[in-house]
Amino acid sequence: MDLLFDAAALQSGALSLPPGIAYAVVAAFVWGTYIFALKRYFDDYPGTVFTVVVNVAAVLWYLPVTLSTPTAEIPDAGTIGIGDAGIILLTVVMTATAFLVFLSALDAGEVSYVAPINKIVPVFVLPIEILFLHEQLRPIQLVGVGVATLAVYVANYRSGSLLDPLKKAATARPAQLALVSALCYAIGDVGKRLVLQEMSIPPTIWVPTLLGGVVVVLLPLVVRDWVSVRGDLPKFALAGAGVALGEHLTSLAFAVAPASIASPVVNTQAVVAVLLGGVILRERAFGTRLVAAALAVIGVALIAL
């Protein structure tokens, strides 16, 4: 499996899109398929155990790609200052923390309230990038970000009023935890942009750094939650390949596009996952999922204008 996609090929022809958008679109499909497989085949495993085993498998899959990185592209450790190291650490910790807080939200409340709120990550990414990185988006792109975010929200919507999850965020702890998780993911997304663009760390170095860093952060909890995975090692290996591919594509997107553009497109992975669930597993509310898919297409199209 060749993870090193040719940028010129992916950005040309039918996929002629602004820099990074094509990568983000393909990443959304990869992550959406991964999420669908996760729900269908790995429900019996604690989230911490699953994440650590899959991330280790992903790093092993990705190792040949990292080793093929030209020496000239590898940053000298001496050139990475304390501030840069802090950004790298913060990005890894926020990514891992977001996942742990999301698990806590699921333990404390219903997925129908937790999942939609957890997926409004771009709502936080946009103001963070505008305020701290002085990013400027055209009005049509701002509308696209809003529509794509709405698509992800609708895709995770279950029942009751569409505003119920947001209303719950004001008073219910599970919804509040989901909101904190979304904020942590947003900080992680902006951190990825800084690492890959401003710090010019190549994706082939960043991918194993992020995946391995998350493993280190989660290890103390894995010791507590550990269950044997020996019987499903082939499935974990396959899932690891998906994570390696998805994280590589995501990194390529964040390396050339603003986080406020890449994040909402990559997060449409939720739409892909629920569509697969509706088609293959015939899950309920498929009509709502189709609306989410239409919104996602419109949002990405507006972003790409």
Q: How many extended strands?
A: 0
Percent range for β-strand residues: under 5%
State the end-to-end CA separation.
Answer: 32 Å
Report the radius of gyration as a whole number of Å: 19 Å
Largest sheet: none
Mean pLDDT: 86
Secondary structure tally, helices:
14
Q: What's the helical proportion of residues?
A: over 70%
Shape by Cα distribution = globular
Task: Write up what this structure looks like.
- With 305 residues, the protein is an all-alpha fold.
- It is built from 14 helices and no strands.
- Helix 2 runs parallel beside helix 12.
Keywords:
about 75% helix, single chain, 14 helices, disordered N terminus, mainly alpha, globular, about 300 residues
Summarize the model shown.
With 305 residues, the chain is mainly alpha-helical. It has helices at 7-10, 21-41, 47-67, 82-108, 111-118, 121-133, 139-156, 164-168, 173-198, 203-225, 233-256, 259-266, 269-280, 286-304. The longest helix has 27 residues, at 82-108.
Please render the helix and strand layout as text:
Blueprint: H1 7-10, H2 21-41, H3 47-67, H4 82-108, H5 111-118, H6 121-133, H7 139-156, H8 164-168, H9 173-198, H10 203-225, H11 233-256, H12 259-266, H13 269-280, H14 286-304
